[in-house]
Each structure stands twice: as structure tokens, then as C-alpha cells.
Design brief:
By secondary structure, this protein is of the alpha+beta class. The protein contains five helices and nine strands. The protein has one domain: Hypothetical protein TT1679 (Rossmann fold). The longest helix is centred in the N-terminal third of the chain and has 22 residues. The radius of gyration is 16 Å and the shape is globular. The termini are far apart.
């Protein structure tokens, strides 16, 4: 990717994250999950054309959007590491996530997982998280890591480079019956 394309990529990712944050109404210390295929972003097939520079830029941009809101990031790896996620050790400890022994690599985890492992202060891998919202770049299937009940968020821009983009937020379950009333969520 050219320098201009990378700058556009950062702008687009920042806007997508902001749109998800606006829809999700997260609170400080909530968890945001990112699934990303840099192969798809650069126009290739998922798992075939991982791009470390694109991964590094995406992680840097997502972190820059989340930090002012005190939100935590979990970055999902590929199926070769069972979609385990990079989180800060503090997050794993505070949220009771079980740490697993794997270090992401370019073709076993992916470029964004590798970048997160490099950019986080004290990274660890966990097998499963329960996030309040997330962004899926390249159809990486983040739904397993977003709290039930999941609600689709449709970013204004539905592609990043060559990758299809979707997002999820969560809301509390509606319980009760005909006599129940509900808060707007």
C-alpha cells in the first residue's frame, strides 16, 4: 500500500470505530473486540496475504480511538490459534479471562494479532472474551466474542480496502412479559 493509501486507511478505520462507539454507548473499561484480515484489506484472500504494515496501522488507529474513552481492546486471531485474542494482562486478570500459551505469528494469528502483541504494554493471549462491541474487518466472525444479545451496526462505509466490514454492539436481554416495560437501549 502507498503512503497515501495508508493515511486513508487510518482515517477510514478511525471513522468506523467512532461509528461503532456512537451506536454502542460503551462505558469506561468496557471491552471492544477487533477481528481483521489484512489480506482482505489489501485485496487478497483471507489468510493468504497478511500485511504487517497494514496490521500495525490498524491497531495503532483503533487504540488511539479507544484510549480516550478508557476502553479495552481485544484482538482476535485466526482459526490457526483457535481465534484466541490478544489483551493486556491487566484486562485478563481483572475480567477473569484464562490466559493461554501462544504467541501470534503472521500465518498463525495474523498481522493485526502480531501488531497488537507488539503494541500492547503487557500482552497475553486468552481463549475467549465477552466484549460489549466490536468491529469485524474482512468477515473474521467476531460474534463468538460479543456479549449476547448482539445487534448489528452498519458503518457508513462497508468496505476497508478490499475487505467487507461489519460491526456488533450488545444490549441487555428483554425479559418479562406483556406487563413489562423496557428502557431504551
Amino acid at each position: 500500500m502507498t503512503t497515501q493509501n495508508l493515511a486513508t486507511l487510518e482515517t477510514d478505520v478511525a471513522r468506523m470505530v467512532q461509528e461503532v462507539l456512537a451506536a454502542a454507548k460503551l462505558r469506561p473499561f468496557d471491552l471492544f473486540v477487533l477481528g481483521c484480515s489484512t489480506s482482505e484489506v489489501v485485496g487478497g484472500q483471507i489468510g493468504q496475504d497478511s500485511n504487517p504494515e497494514v496490521g500495525a496501522r490498524i491497531i495503532k488507529t483503533v487504540l488511539a480511538q479507544l484510549r480516550p474513552h478508557q476502553l479495552q481492546l481485544a484482538v482476535q486471531g485466526c482459526e490457526h490459534i483457535n481465534r484466541s485474542l490478544v489483551v493486556e494482562r491487566r484486562v485478563a486478570d481483572e475480567m477473569g479471562f484464562e490466559i493461554v500459551n501462544v504467541v501470534p505469528a503472521m500465518h498463525a494469528g495474523g498481522a493485526c494479532s502480531v501488531a497488537a502483541f507488539q503494541q500492547f504494554k503487557d500482552p497475553v493471549e486468552v481463549e475467549h472474551v465477552v466484549a460489549q462491541a466490536g468491529l469485524d474487518i474482512g468477515d473474521t466472525a467476531i460474534g463468538m466474542h460479543v456479549k449476547f444479545v448482539q445487534v448489528p451496526v452498519r458503518p457508513t462505509q462497508s468496505e476497508l480496502g478490499g475487505a467487507h466490514v461489519t460491526a456488533l454492539r450488545s444490549r441487555p436481554k428483554y425479559v418479562g412479559g406483556p406487563r413489562a416495560t423496557y428502557a431504551t437501549v
